[in-house]
Amino acid sequence: MPYERGELEAITRRARPGDEETILTPCVAPPPEGVEPGAWQAAVRARREWLHHGLASGRLRVMLALVPAQEGPLMEYPGVGRVPVASLAHDGLIPAGIIEYAPLAHAAEPVRGGDHWIIHCMWVIPPFARRGVGSALLTAAVRDLREDPEVAPEAGLAVVAYRGEQWWGFFDYMPEAFFARHGFRPVDRDGSRVLMYRPVAATPMDLFERCDEPPGAGQPLYLIPPRQNLEGTGVPGTIPLPGEEAGAARPQGTHVRFLYHSRCPAAAAVWERLKAEAGSRPGLHLEAVDTRDPGAMRWYGVANGLFVNGRLVLHKVPSPGEVRAAAGIGP
């Protein structure tokens, strides 16, 4: 039977400019249900553009985990169903997972502190989950930074992990426990979000001892505190955008502001579904903020989340169901 359970011997290699389509596969195949094709294509284009500019400039690195595409027209994809193997394969290899990381100065998360690197996301597609692919990706990324003479020896690798959160209701989202098993230690917390860190230069024998040292020689890592309530930034009852004139009139009703980073097409897909399901419902006012704009992300202290009537109610990439419940939008 193709892809029987057990550890996989994945091939890991760092992506190069021109690998954008291979990187995209774990993110966009198969496409989500309930999203208008044109809107999904726009989300994919935004992701492709982010990858192209990041890889070409050196501001972004992506490690790929590749496994041979076995015989058979279909494969089980939990949460989706049976999908064609050919839709996932590139030159006989399936990108089973990716890890995306960047210098902290170009972080796609609201994190500050020192000349470190940060993991934006790590994603293993469901057919290959819990089979060692994530560990192989993380090990390869750490090795990549450790062996790069341009990365400072005192640099560390950070990640915004989560405790007890699930993505789309059926799998753990960047779980704290996984990164703890690989030597990361918490340095800051905000609810279920956990900022974690490990030294790049540490070996397995001294990881746990060295992770207790202050990161970056006295330059602590920290999460930018999120704005919990936007009312204080303007007239009570309004939700001003950064730079918006204080006191600007707003219509009455329920105001929903969806924050997402356009590097993630799944987050963009949630926004498109939210718009479609809300329709022209009277009294419901929707706005989106793309936190690819670093000024917006710093202002909110949030990369992905949801404000309802000026209050932060979700602080992660939410599922459509979570958005519906928080915003009071019926099924």
TrEMBL record:
<dbReference type="InterPro" id="IPR016181">
    <property type="entry name" value="Acyl_CoA_acyltransferase"/>
</dbReference>
<dbReference type="InterPro" id="IPR000182">
    <property type="entry name" value="GNAT_dom"/>
</dbReference>
<dbReference type="Pfam" id="PF00583">
    <property type="entry name" value="Acetyltransf_1"/>
</dbReference>
<protein>
    <recommendedName>
        <fullName>N-acetyltransferase domain-containing protein</fullName>
    </recommendedName>
</protein>
<dbReference type="GO" id="GO:0016747">
    <property type="term" value="F:acyltransferase activity, transferring groups other than amino-acyl groups"/>
</dbReference>
<feature type="domain" description="N-acetyltransferase">
    <location>
        <begin position="42"/>
        <end position="210"/>
    </location>
</feature>
